[in-house]
Design brief:
The protein is of the alpha/beta class and 301 residues long. The chain contains ten helices and 13 strands.
Length: 301
């Protein structure tokens, strides 16, 4: 006989407290349930149930077997549900945490196309730069920029950006242009207060040496767009990702501070809970993003 059917018959008898109710639950005859359980006991060479005229209860061995059998049956049920879900159309509310600047500048303009393609999905996008706890805070996924913290989450790189130090031409005319990293100490540096390293810029020198520069200018903000606006207004030098500075740089509103520095690339990742099964709505959105950003370089915004 089929092992899973035997397990199911035995576990259902334990759950229902008898053969009659188990048969009703399974939709088969009482004799069929009894036959499955007897076959299981014969195969295992152990008595799993104590049978009396009034009640049925598991033996000590039967109780231990029941715990493991119930887990196996639950896993089998989840496997069946997984196949069913993967074949169904993505649907439901997709709640995601997104890095603010990336969400405003790049992700928001794309959402209409995604929702048109998947009309059964609705999106709840929460913008912020805090690393949320996906599972405990009820998020399906997150979009994060830069190095990922060690965690059990799964991650897929969808694109990358790069960071450069930029300022307005008017700033350089008034204060000169720094030519070396050491020159930055004589300049007004615009500070992004949400940066994980605090008020320290991590910069790679032409030699490959990793340098740290403290940003101690007259302006501190917690929003990349405000930092960009301040740089364009000539208030100082900002250290920005390419999805913020690329267009103003092309238009001549910004210039690079130290052009010969190595490019600092940062990955942009979709992260989502661990497990063998990815929700169809999450998988659909990540695939959508990967296709949209495919072939785009870190400064092609």
């Amino acid at each position: 006989m089929d092992r899973l059917t035997e397990m199911e018959a035995f576990a259902t008898v334990v759950d229902q407290g008898g053969f009659t109710d188990a048969a009703r639950k399974m939709g088969i005859s009482k004799s069929a349930v009894s036959k499955h359980v007897s076959s299981l006991e014969a195969r295992l060479g152990a008595r799993l149930l104590n049978r009396t005229t009034r009640r049925v209860s598991p033996t000590e061995i039967g109780l231990a077997y029941y715990d493991r059998a119930r887990r196996v049956l639950n896993d089998a049920g989840e496997a069946d549900s997984l196949v069913s879900a993967m074949q169904s159309a993505p649907s439901g509310v997709l709640r995601m945490s997104v890095a603010t600047d990336f969400g405003v500048h790049l992700l928001s303009p794309m959402l209409g196309d995604f929702l048109n393609e998947y009309p059964e999905i609705s999106i709840n996008m929460v913008l912020g730069n805090r690393f949320v706890e996906l599972i405990s805070e009820g998020f399906d996924m997150a979009i994060r920029v830069g190095d990922l913290e060690d965690s059990t989450l799964r991650a897929r790189k969808i694109t990358e950006t790069t960071k450069r130090m930029v300022a307005a031409p008017s700033y350089f005319q008034a204060h000169g242009r720094p030519m070396r990293i050491d020159d930055l100490s004589d300049h007004k540096l615009l500070h992004y207060s949400n940066h994980p390293s605090g008020n320290v810029w991590k910069i790679t020198a032409p030699s490959g040496e990793k340098r740290q520069v403290r940003s101690s200018g007259s302006l501190t903000v917690n929003d990349g767009q405000s930092l960009l606006n301040a740089a364009i207004a000539g208030l100082g030098i900002a250290h920005l990702p390419s999805f913020l500075y690329a267009d103003p740089l092309r238009k001549g509103l910004l210039e690079e501070a130290i052009p010969d520095l190595p490019r600092e690339d940062l990955g942009i990742y979709a992260v989502y809970p661990p497990g063998r099964f990815t929700q169809p709505k999450v998988r659909a959105f990540i695939d959508f993003l990967a296709a949209r950003f495919s072939g785009r370089g870190p400064e092609s915004w």
